[in-house]
Structures are given as structure tokens and as C-alpha cells.
Amino acid sequence: MLKPVLAVVLLSAASVSSVAYGDRALTPLESSVVSAKCASLASFGAPTPGLTFEARISVASCVASERLDKVPRMAPTLVTSALADAAEPAIAMIDDVIQTAGGDHPGVVIIAQTAKANIYAGLITRARAMIPSEFEVTGTKYAMLREAHEDLEAQLAPWVDREEAALSAVASTGRMHPELNRNPVIQTAIRDSNTALDATPLSATR
Hints:
This protein is mostly helical. Helix content is 62%, strand content 2%. It has a two-stranded antiparallel ribbon. Strand 1 (20-21) and strand 2 form a beta hairpin. Helix 5 (139-176) crosses helix 6 (184-198). It starts with 19 loop residues before the first strand and ends in an 8-residue tail after the last helix.
């Protein structure tokens, strides 16, 4: 399971598939990608920019969880491409929110970047879990599993970098907008991002 995204207030009513803000608009949801369950998270009564963006982030996180849960155990050489394909629509939705919200909604950007970091962290965890731990065996099998993990870590490096980039975006946006710390949800996201960035390198968390 992915880490839970920051708490988002959602109201129920007619689904909103595309909302425009000036010359920017969120891309409409695609029924071929978004299940009815996930699409229901984009529903509310009186849409405001903040609620609309946050609801779309919830949809993206739901889509990521559903699609990633369907990826079966497979050979390490295939797992990263399978997981990347599963997560791509959700990441695209989050990037769409970030681009559409722009500098007008820094709080939304923090929530979106946190969700993106969570998705990449989930990808890394799932990929690593595809290979048994080498520390539970000895001899030739240990050497084989150790090599498999080392090969996998090389494939995971881009995801580690993207997770770190998303966390850095949360931290930098928080520094530029200290007033956002009055919101406890945003405050937690900023604090957790700074803690993760200050801790052991993300690539060494296996």
C-alpha cells in the first residue's frame, strides 16, 4: 500500500472532470484509467480551486494504489518497467495539478509533491520486495540474491532521485511561503520532508 496522502476535505455531489482557471485547466479524467471508485473522489458540491486540486490528488493516489496492487510478482529485470507503467497515469495527474495550480496555490503544490514522493517511495518498496532478502540465506544463493539486489538498486536510482526531488520541492515551497505553516496538514508535510531529506540517503533505506 502507498503511504496515505495528506488529509483532504472532500464533499459529495456531481463529478467534475475538468476545471479551468484562467487559461489553465486540469485534464479531464479518463474512464479507461480511473475506476468509478477513484473518480468518486473528484466529486464535491461547491468546487473551489483548492478543493478541486486536492480532490484530483486524491484521485491520482487512488489510481496509483489500484494499479500497483495489480502488478504481480515477476523477475527483477521486468519489475521496474511494470511498476512504472502502472504508476504513470497517477504521476501524470499529479504533474497536471502542479502545472495548473502554478504559483497561485503553493499549499496545493506541497500536497501534490508529497503525494508524488509517496508514489515513488511505494514503487521503490514494491520493487525491492520482489526479491527475497539475501540475509536469510548463505553460500551461492546469498551471492545470487546479493547481485540481484545490486542490479535492482541501479534501476531504482531514477526513482530515488525523483522522490528526493519531490521532497525538496515541498521543503523549498514551505520556505518560500512560511505562512502555510499555520495549516497543520501543510506543516506536517514540510516537517516530514525536511526530516527525510536530512536523514540517511534515500537510496540506503533498504
